[in-house]
Every structure is written in C-alpha cells, then in structure tokens.
Design goal:
264 residues, mainly beta, eleven-stranded parallel beta sheet, 3% helix, elongated
Length: 264
Amino acid sequence: MTTRWTPGRPAARPGPEAVGEPAGRGPESLNLWNRGLGTVPEEVWDRTALRVLILAGNGLTGLSPRIAGLRRLHTLDLGHNALAAVPEELGELTGLTRFLYLHDNRLTELPRSLIRLTRLRYLNAGENPLTALPPDLGSLTGLVELRLQHCALTVFPESAGALRNLRELWLRGNRLTELPGSLGGLKELRELDLRGNRLTGLPDRMAGLPLLRRLDLRSNPLRELPEWLTGLPSLEKLDLRWTGADERSPVVRELTGRGCAVLL
C-alpha cells in the first residue's frame, strides 16, 4: 500500500541522516522523508530547480531515469529504501557536490557512472550487500568522507589511493583480508575504521599517513602490529580490542608512553 503525495503537504521531520539545512521548504528543497510512498511521484521529476531532494524511508524499489533532469541537485538522500539498483543516469547529476546517501538499501553494486561525480564531498553507501566497487573509485577526488560500512566487500580498489581529499574512511563490517598499499597516498586521512574485517596485517605504505588520528582495528585477526604505527605523528587513538594484541607489545608500550590512547 502506498501513500499519495500531495504538493504542499507539510514535510515530515528529517531523520538523522538528513542534511544540515532546511529541507522541504521553498522551491529548491523537497523533503519526502518517511512517507511510505512506494514509488516517486512523477511530478517530482518536473521540479528541475531542486537543490535538495530527500526520498529516504519510502520503500522505494526503483528509480526513474528521469532523475537525470535534476541537474541542480547538490544533495540527494535515497537511504533506508529497498533499491536493488540505481540507474546509470545518476552519474549525470554532476552538480552533486555535498551529500549522496545510498545507505540501507539492497544494492549489490554501484553504477559505473558514479565516478563522474568528481565534486561530491560525502558518499554513504553502507549497509548494502555490495560485493565490489567501481575499479576507478579514485576518480571521486572531491570526497572528504566515504562510508562503506557493513557491506560484503572482499576487495578495496587500488585506485582509492587517488582520493587525495579524503579525511574519513569507514570500512567496518566487511570481508576484507588485505588493503591496497595505495592507501598510503591518502595524505589528508584523519579517521580510518576497519573494525570487523579479516585483516591479518596492514600494508607498509600506510606508514605515510601524516594526519591519521584514529585507527580502529577491532575484531581483525592481526598476526602482529607493524612497527611503523609508532611513527604516525598524529595518531591519538588506536583500538585493538579483540585482535589478540598484547599490552606488553613494544608498539603498544611506545604509543601509550607518548600519550596515544591504545584500547586492548
């Protein structure tokens, strides 16, 4: 059963993932959060002046290619739906510069066209059964924050090392057994969440992360702690719970001695 959308109907209050600006007000924002729509009303695609469109929590199973006509969008929220795919036309929204939420859907892959969104700053595609990512993910050079938590990823693409503006990378709850050495090129990275993967080690090239402050390695079967961890100049917190790490480790002792919070 679907709910009919009526233009001008008071907008529902945005959920926790809604953007930090008024939504559902004025001709440039439309907030249809949690309306139980089932499908997107066709008249939405006629509103080509939209800058913000929130369609989260509507049980959507498909999305019209007409979305390509919303060229002015800078924020799009498609989270908390039942989408098994999103159209390639999503890549035509090159005005998306702020937020793209695709989390909590049924996506097994992302459209290859997504790499055209080179000015996008925030992408959340977590809580999807994603098994792979576009190999040229590194083309999204505008990203500041990338969330891919609780997917089914077994490989993270080598091209990700080109995300030169990335500050936060969330990969917890995947099936990664190794990471590409190219991550050592993420010179702006501040936070790296790797909790709940299958990592037995970390690539040596990650020693070159000058701004990394927080590293979460919980619940990974690490064989040993790399000595280069002690050389990360900005590291403030290292979470090693459920990794088998020992407080007597020279790495742990040195980091603790200089004031880094090491959790065991």
